[in-house]
Amino acid sequence: MPSLLKPDYPRIPAHVGIIMDGNGRWARRKNQTRTQGHLEGLNTAKRIVKTASDMGISFLTLYVFSTENWKRTAEEVGFIMGLVKRYLAAEMDFYRKNRIRIRHTGAAEGLPPEIAREIQAACEETKVFEGLQVILALNYGGRDEIVRAVRRILGTPEATETAGFSSRISEELIRQNLDNPDVPDPDLIIRTGGEYRISNFLLWEGAYAEYYFSDRLWPDWTEEDFAAAIRNFAERDRRFGDVKK
Ligand code: IPE
Ligand code: IPE
Ligand code: MG
Questions:
Q1: What global pTM score does this model have?
Q2: CA of 101 to the centre of ligand 3 (A)
Q3: Is residue 232 flagged as an active site residue?
Q4: Is 241 within a domain?
Q5: Is 13 contained in some domain?
Q6: Is 69 a catalytic residue?
Q7: In the chain, which ranges are E strands?
Q8: Pocket test for ligand 1, best of 23, 195, 198 (most atoms within 8 A of CB)
Q9: Is residue 2 part of a domain?
Q10: Is the shortest distance between the CB of 69 and ligand 2 below 6 Å?
C-alpha cells in the first residue's frame, strides 16, 4: 500500500534543494509583519525536514539567507539570524533522535560571529549522524561560492609554484573546492512562492538539476506539496545531454 511518506514510485532524489520563498507575502496577506512570515516559514522548514528524513532522502539544501538578502532592513536581517540561532539550539534533540546531520554552505566569515559559532557547533555535534544531511545555505550566493572556490585553488602552493598550473584548472578541480565537495549535485530544486528564477542558488551544482516551481507560499507548504514534487520528479526524463538509447 503506497503511502505519502513511503511512496511506491521508483525514483527518490538523493539531493533536493529548496528555495523557500514567499514568507513576506504570506504575512502581508494576513495583515501580519514580515517577521511573522519568517516564523511560520520556520515551522514549514521543520515539517519538510521531518518529511524528507522519513522519505529516506539523503541531502536537503535549504536556502535560508542569500548574499543579496543583506539589502533588507536591519530589523528583518536580525530577526532571521536570531531565528536560525534559536532553531539550531531548540532542534538538537530532534536531530539526535532522527540521526540528522547539519551542514552549512555559504560564507561563514560574513555571518555575525555568534551565528557562525552556533552553526559550527551544530555541524560538529551532528557530524557523526548517518541519516539525512540538512545543508543550510546561509549567507549563500552561487557566484560567491564559485569565487571562494577559485580563491581556495589560488591559495594552494601548487598554484603559486607550478608553471603551467592554469592548464590544470578543470571542472573537477573547481568542484572539489566548492563548500561541500562530497555532497552530490542536487537532483531536484524546488522553488515555492510563485517566482520562476534561481536567485543565485546552487549555480554550479544545479547545472543538471530538475526544477519544480510551486505558486504556493512557503509558510503554506505541507508534506503533501513536498510529496507531489517528489512524484513529479520521478516522472522526469533526465538525459544529461545524451540521447535515449
Ligand atoms: C523567503 O521569503 C525568505 C528569505 C528570503 C529570507 P521572503 O522574505 O523572500 O518572502 P517574499 O518573497 O517577500 O514573499
Ligand atoms: C531567495 O529568495 C533567497 C531565499 C529564499 C533565502 P529572495 O526572495 O531573496 O529572491 P528574489 O529577491 O525574489 O530573487
Ligand atoms: Mg522572496
A1: 0.96
A2: 27
A3: no
A4: no
A5: no
A6: yes
A7: 15-19, 59-66, 101-105, 133-140, 188-191, 210-213
A8: 23
A9: no
A10: yes
Point out the ligand 2 atom lying closest to the alpha carbon of residue 64. 6
| Residue 8 forms part of a structural domain | no
How remote is the CA of residue 198 from the centroid of ligand 2, in Å?
A: 8
Per-residue pLDDT of the chain (245 residues; tens, 9 = 90+): 445 555 555 689 999 999 999 999 999 999 999 999 999 999 999 999 999 999 999 999 999 999 999 999 999 999 999 999 999 999 999 999 999 999 999 999 999 999 999 999 999 999 999 999 999 999 999 999 999 999 999 999 889 888 888 888 999 999 999 999 999 999 999 999 999 999 999 999 999 999 999 999 999 999 999 999 999 999 999 999 999 87
Concatenating the DSSP letter of every residue in 30-76 gives: TT--HHHHHHHHHHHHHHHHHHHHHHT-SEEEEEEEETTGGGS-HHH
**Grid cell 519538510 in the structure block, residue:** 48
- Residue 64 amino acid letter: V
| Catalytic choice (23, 69, 177, 200) | 69
Residue span of the structural domain in which 61 resides: 20-233
